[in-house]
Amino acid sequence: MPRLVCWVISEGRPGIENQCLGLAEALARTAPAGTGLEIVTKRIRIAPPWRWLPHRFWPEPLRCLGPQGDRLAPPWPDLLICAGRVSVAPSLAVKAASGGLCQAIRLERPYGSGAAFDLVVTPAHDRYEGSNVLHSSGALNRVRPDLLSAAAREFAALAESLPTPLTAVLIGGDSKAYRMTPESLRDLAAGLRAACEANGGGLLITGSRRTPPAAMAAFREAIGGLPHYLWDGSGANPYYGFLGLAETIVTTCDSVSMLSEACATGKPVYVHELPGRGGKLRAFLDRLYAENRARRFAGRLEHWRCEPLDDATAIARAIWLRQPGQPATVS
Q1: pTM of the model
Q2: Where are the alpha helices (H) located in 143-212, listed in sequence order?
Q3: What is the C-alpha to C-alpha distance for residues 271 and 172, in angstroms, rounded to an integer?
Q4: How far apart are CA 25 and CA 312, in angstroms?
Q5: Residue pair 191/272 in contact by the 8 Å Cβ criterion
Q6: Which domain of life is it from (predicted)?
Q7: What is the C-alpha separation between 195 and 218, in angstroms, rounded?
Q8: What's the angle, vertex CA 224, arms to CA 259 and CA 187, rounded to 5?
Q9: What percent of the chain stands above pLDDT 70?
Q10: Average pLDDT taken over every residue of the chain
Q11: Which domains, and CATH codes, for the chain?
Q12: Residue 168: burial class (beta carbons within 10 Å; 0-12, 13-18, 19+)
């Protein structure tokens, strides 16, 4: 069996790395018959003074890597997937060092270097076009039934004392388009209280590193008396466990990744909208509403059926179909 090697290159930030891993794992699942794919995660750090300079000033990107991160050295991979600005120059240097044999795939808008990559994968609402561009609906991710089932088993004890049905509550934070204020999270808490009083059940709540402390403090106070578990950031992250355990999901509107992961579960998703102008994210939200993948949260929780938003598998199939040989088949 031919065995290909795929490097996932990033700074290691979970949100970015998980997008890359989501695509890599989908490529492994959809590989043509008889082809294996080994995934190797490379978390890089840029050494000073280069990390303070734009990458166009890095004379030899592979020599600019710091010892705190992983080395990028032969044998070179058959393909690589990268995301984040820091990964651009090192990834293109790997492609060049391989003699062009390594196929370089860039996630997210590449900001000027798009033509140098073999493929660029970016959400349609970014409005980035090119002959080497594949469009996803939202952000690629790792959410799959097997991952959610395993995580639900791992974190089941956190929900043992809560009444059912369970609702996962995903709280993001400030973004370019939206502001999270104490008042906006008090409104969310009021809606959750109304839903719990009408339907019963408990809440599995997780915040983000972006959640403003004052807003979270207001939310904690406002949900007093409701049956809930709120992850405080200590210990293993139960995020996927909450998605697996819950029957419905309520999420704030500020993150394409968070919305995409929620909709990838195939469960009913409700969106609590924050103050802001929306921008490109507004177009993504409106598409989710139009496709009935999500609904605005107004203090009520209902159940409906919808197909999981599985961008990673769709993009992986499109990538394999661009390669010589047989079309991809899902295993």
Answers
A1: 0.91
A2: 145-154, 182-199
A3: 12
A4: 8
A5: yes
A6: Bacteria
A7: 19
A8: 45
A9: 97
A10: 93
A11: 3-142+311-321 (3.40.50), 145-296 (3.40.50.2000)
A12: buried
